[in-house]
Amino acid sequence: MTPPPLVLDNLTVAFSRHPAVHHLSGRFAPGSMTAVVGPNGAGKTTLLRALIGELQPESGRIDRGGLAPSAIGYLPQAAALDRSFPLACAEVAAMGMWRAAGPFRALSAAERERIGEALAAVGLRGFAARPIATLSAGQFQRLLFARLLLQDAPVLLLDEPFNAIDSRTTADLVRMLRRWHGEGRTIIAVLHDLELVRAEFPDTLLLAREPIAWGRTAEALTAETLFRARLMAEAWDETAEPCRNNEAAPRRAA
Amino acid sequence: MGLIEPFLEFSFLRRALVGGIALALSAPPLGVFLVQRRLSLIGDALGHAILPGVAVGAALFGLSLVAMSGGGLIAGLAVMLAAGLAARGGAMREDASLAGFYLVSLALGVALVSWGPAQLDLLELLFGSVLAVDDAALLLMASTATVTLVSLAVIWRPLVIETFDAGFLRAQGGRGAMWHLWFLALVVLNLVAAFQALGTLMAVGLMMLPAVAARFVSPSLSGQVVASVAIATLAVVAGLTLSVQADVATGPAIVLCAGALWLALLVVGPEASLLARRVRRPHLAR
């Protein structure tokens, strides 16, 4: 499994003209495992949504090296889903087969077996027929990991995957990330737990709308860079002028 | 008069029964999905939305089923498409955009009815006359049931995924809009097929009440679909009987029966009902 590199070229993504990700350039190497770290409102989720093509760049570009956006596995922050929906765990996990099976094709016996294996891999053995309404938040997050596992995607984006999850579940799911990393998949995860990042993630992008640091984790996460990231003003500046740094923007006549 | 004799004696009753059962087969499964999408009231909105089409059809081509159903279908699809596209474009939430479009459509309908030919009875449009089901209407209901059930079988997987996690399907390149609009088109089709028998308002009752009741019967989506059809069929048969025996208007009688079943299941249904929540059984060892 060798995914293409993901290259960001002077990427800016904006909401109502206010940049959420501002002039970000860099490269997620094939098979790299990168933590995206930064204060609230730093543009971390925005960056992931731009990477899967859900948000269009305001300027700059994203080069996915020919990889279709739909081939990227994406685990959003789980809060948005209706956990009282009348579905069984196996049915939710099976959604990960969408790209393989499409809207109509019946799943083969081997594929059904893989669903069982995926549930077992995230510690949900025996949960196949359980309604998802009966799961705890941590178990539900494990289920979403099982779905992601079945997607078999070469590039995986995870948005705060360990929020509100106990340490044992986190350890289990981190093991899964390590396994994906070992298989040569590119992993990009938004995280807040700096200890976890330092222990498990070789690379880190420290984002505060603008990139503060991007590289080996030990060099990207220093007291000095973290202090600079904290200086980012969260509020929109309503009096902000158009960005001068932006080649695409019309220049004022001299 | 016995319970069965009237059906043997009067062909219009048999027709109403068959038509009602056809509606009971196709509308409630759609209602189950609407409940899950938190769009329980959308049927109401779409039911109102088809009114101007019916009025225009009647004004232009007289009180024929084809003209009125065709007009209703066009108006319903137009409102649904406009609302669906406005919501998918991210301009506003689906319920808000639907509320906007259906209100305009309803006002337009009432204005057209009041301005058009005098013989068009608004009350009959809103509440229907199930005993006036003719062959053409029966054919429309039966075809609608067939199209709906086959469609649901075909789009089941993408529709379930789109309903549960639209963002996931979009990220997977699953053309969520297509399944979503296909589904809403089925809702419109069912409301149009039902309007002559039940009226635009009562048709929504047969779609939503069994669907809401079904959640007290089964914890699974497919179980709820089956349960909703059974509840609706029961309501149609009981409602027609009630209507004959007690001389109550048929549409409301059917919807009242569905409502009674819903309330009964709400209290004593096997799943998550008031009773099921109160029953204390000893907890398990592990």
Descriptive report:
The complex is a heterodimer of chains A (254) and B (286). With 254 residues, chain A is an alpha/beta fold. Chain A has a domain at 1-67 and 154-162 and 185-234: Rossmann fold, CATH 3.40.50. Helix content of chain A is 32%, strand content 23%. Chain A has 9 helices and 9 strands. Chain A has helices at 44-51, 89-94, 98-101, 109-121, 137-151, 167-182, 194-200, 217-220, 223-230; strands spanning 6-15, 18-28, 33-37, 59-63, 72-75, 155-159, 186-190, 203-208, 210-216. Chain A has a 6-stranded mixed β-sheet, with helices on both faces. In chain A, strands 2-1-4 form a 3-stranded antiparallel β-sheet, covered by helices on one side. The longest helix of chain A has 16 residues, at 167-182. The radius of gyration of chain A is 19 Å and the shape is globular. Chain A starts with 5 loop residues before the first strand and ends in a 24-residue tail after the last helix. Mean pLDDT of chain A is 88; it is low at 248-254. Chain B is an all-alpha fold. Chain B has a single domain (5-275), classed as ABC transporter involved in vitamin B12 uptake, BtuC (Orthogonal Bundle), CATH 1.10.3470.10. Chain B has helices at residues 5-9, 11-36, 42-49, 51-61, 65-88, 94-115, 122-127, 135-164, 166-171, 176-214, 221-246, 250-268, 274-278. The longest helix of chain B is centred in the C-terminal third of the chain and has 39 residues, at 176-214. Chain A binds chain B through residues 52, 54, 68-70, 72, 74, 76, 80-82, 85-88, 91-92, 95, 98-99, 103-104, 131, 133, 151, and chain B through 36, 154-155, 157-158, 160-161, 163-165, 167-174, 179, 215, 218-221, 223-224.
